[in-house]
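Quick one, tokens below. Sequence please?
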């Protein structure tokens, strides 16, 4: 994806779309637009430029097709007793094509973050090459520096899983 506030339209590199379609599962459930991952894969190489053009038009016009803005919410059973509502979790089925665009945008944003050094060095979530482990190592290093500089030895860090 190109354009950095230059007033030029976004252009999407066909290689990105090709890579995204390869990564799309054939058995993904369809969203409100009724386009499946299998359709994208079966379209193959001839369809890739058209998909890239559709995403470029969508980005440059700043509007999304209506089906891309909606989701079908399906309850998925997760417990023992199917009759209890609490034993189900909601899953939103959204447009497979819109997901392609989301990945292109996310990739572009990651490139901008890295290129322009926008993220704080302690930011470990949602970054390639960073993880919970790297976050803990970073926190341990900060703790050691803090203890060395202040002489204080009490520091409590809490990492817990958020649940809904």
């Amino acid at each position: 994806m190109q354009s950095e506030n230059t007033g030029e339209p976004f252009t999407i590199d066909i290689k990105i779309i090709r890579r995204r379609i390869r990564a799309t599962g054939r058995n993904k459930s369809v969203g409100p637009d009724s386009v499946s991952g299998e359709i994208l894969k079966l379209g193959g190489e001839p369809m890739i430029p058209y998909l890239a053009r559709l995403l470029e038009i969508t980005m440059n016009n700043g509007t999304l097709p209506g089906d891309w803005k909606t989701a079908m919410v399906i309850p998925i059973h997760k417990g023992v007793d199917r009759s209890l509502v609490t034993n189900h979790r909601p899953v939103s089925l959204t447009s497979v094509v819109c997901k392609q665009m989301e990945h292109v945008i996310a990739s572009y944003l990651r490139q901008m973050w890295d290129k322009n050094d926008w993220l704080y060095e302690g930011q470990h979530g949602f970054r390639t090459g960073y993880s919970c482990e790297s976050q803990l190592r970073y926190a341990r290093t900060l703790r050691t520096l803090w203890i060395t500089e202040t002489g204080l030895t009490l520091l409590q860090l809490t990492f817990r899983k958020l649940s809904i």
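The first helix runs from residue 14 to 23. The chain has four helices and two strands.
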